[in-house]
Amino acid sequence: MCGRMSGKRPEDQLAHDQQLDEMAPRKRILVVDDHPDSADALVAMLGMMGHQTMAITDSREAIRSAKRFNPDLALLDLNMPHLSGLELAQMFRDDEQLRSVCLIALTAYGDENYRRLTRSAGFDAHVVKPADPPLLQSIIQQFDAQE
Q: Which of 2, 10, 54, 76 reaches 20 to 30 Å from 104, CA-CA?
């Protein structure tokens, strides 16, 4: 069905897609990025998609904040001072309360070596900065389908 309409008129398809989007469950999403502007931009974008968000710019606060916020997903920058996103992913996976959080690696590196590295660290997805809104929404919806 890729690239083809479902037989509905375009305006009917659009209305149908909007209804499905309105029915999609909203997520609690934690954003951990040491660059405040990047974190704020992601929070704004995710908020416009209807998700509840929290931004953390100090990786040392990520686990404590995640336990209070109880996110469904966490977007973790990989290259941060103090604790890297890879270290945080391991901490999420080792923590009984947080191990089921869907983890999305957020990085400037998109080559296969980094993708393999993030998979082995326990990430569920890998997104190259700057995050493309439709791609990010698609990943979030994939997690909805898996639940």
A: 2
Q: Indicate whether 122 belongs to any domain.
A: yes
Q: What percent of the chain has pLDDT over 70?
A: 80
Across the range 95-116, mean pLDDT stands at 93
User: Structural domain tally of the chain?
Assistant: 1
Distance of CA 118 to the CA centre of its chain: 14
CB count in 10 Å sphere of residue 45: 17
The answer to pTM > 0.85 is: no
Q: Which helix (H) or strand (E) holds 103?
A: strand 102-107
- Asked if residue 4 belongs to a domain, the reply is no
- Answer left, alpha or beta for residue 68, where phi above 0 means left and psi between -120 and 50 means alpha: alpha
